Amino acid sequence: LSSGAMLNKISLDKNTESVLGVSQKDKDNLYLITTVENANIFAKEDTVTIESTAKYNTINLLSINKNTGELLYSQILNFFHRSIQGFTVDDKYIYVESVDDKSLWLRAYEKKEGVEQWKHEFDRPEYYALRDLSSVFYNEKIIVPLNDDIIYLNRDDGRVLGEYVFDDIEQITTFNQHGLYGNMLTFFSEDFDNELLTFNLDTEKLINRQIIKYENPSLDLNYKNRFFDIDHFGRLSAYSFSGGDNKIMFDWENNYNKLISLIGQTNGLLYLFDNADNSIFSVQPGSGDVVKTKLPLLWSAKELGIYNDFIIVQSDGRLYVMKNI
Fold first, then answer.
1. Cys-Cys with 295: which of 65, 67, 230, 280 at CB 3.0–4.6 Å?
2. Counting Cβ atoms within 10 Å, is residue 209 exposed (0-12), middle (13-18) or buried (19+)?
3. Torsion from C-alpha of 265, 270, 273, 274, nearest 10 degrees
């Protein structure tokens, strides 16, 4: 990253149409989910549907050695729907969470050859595409939000182990890995009001519940004992655990009066992207105070990320890296 020198060039199948997911969590290998077009569907079919597309396209799971760039395998998966909601790796398995028109699927693949080990099907939750919902991994459990239910599976074999039961939980709207702090999990639900709820994953007890005054609250980052909730119109809020009773406390809120998105954190600061003028600014996580007001980007940004203290920016046909901003 520091020099921008090319270390490896990895060639995917020439018929690769898109990359649906990437996981870098494994220390040795890079894992990708891709779609591969094996024939021109428009030359084969009069009408293009999901079913006809699946005849000529495949979803592939790839493993690539990070050090050498060697393609270790490209395993054709036994499903075809492009909506990948979650993609993660642990010491043993690769987990893929996906949805189709009727179902939510969880699948586990072993890492050495990409062979499926188990799968589990659930009815697709209502308004799934409009919610920030994904499974949370905690110890040997996979915790899955389903409308107003929260169930947990054994991550080794996919068996349903049980359900977390709380009174008067309505539609779960935000549920993801950012809400995990130690053995406590925080999420949002909505009925007449938006609620923030925290429960203990070991005792299965609800330890905090409070009304949130904002529309569409979110969990976008967990950093320095704080949860950050952002909306794209300029508001950023922070919550933290209090020292004694594990209650979630409101810390601060700032409205930056611009269209923003949260890139991530590095060097003890939060970095945000100003969509309107294509620039980056940084704020203190403890107060929301702006540290650096503007860093204009050279080209219009499509994707931004932070990796090992570098900010990586992807634009049309360009990839560039910044450090010490």
1. 280
2. middle
3. 180
pLDDT grade, residue 1 (50/70/90)?
A: very low
| CB neighbourhood size of 211 (10 A) | 9
Taking alpha carbons only, the member of 89, 126, 122 closest to residue 105 is: 122
CA dist 154 and 141 (Å) reads: 5
Residue 247: helix, strand or coil by DSSP? coil
- 23 in Cβ contact with 62 (< 8 Å): no
* Tens of pLDDT, residues 208-261: 888 888 788 888 899 888 889 988 788 999 998 765 566 788 899 999 988 899
Residue that is written with structure tokens 């952002």 in the block: 230
**Residue 308: closest CA among 324, 296, 293, 294:** 324
**Measured distance CA(158)–CA(125) in Å, rounded:** 19
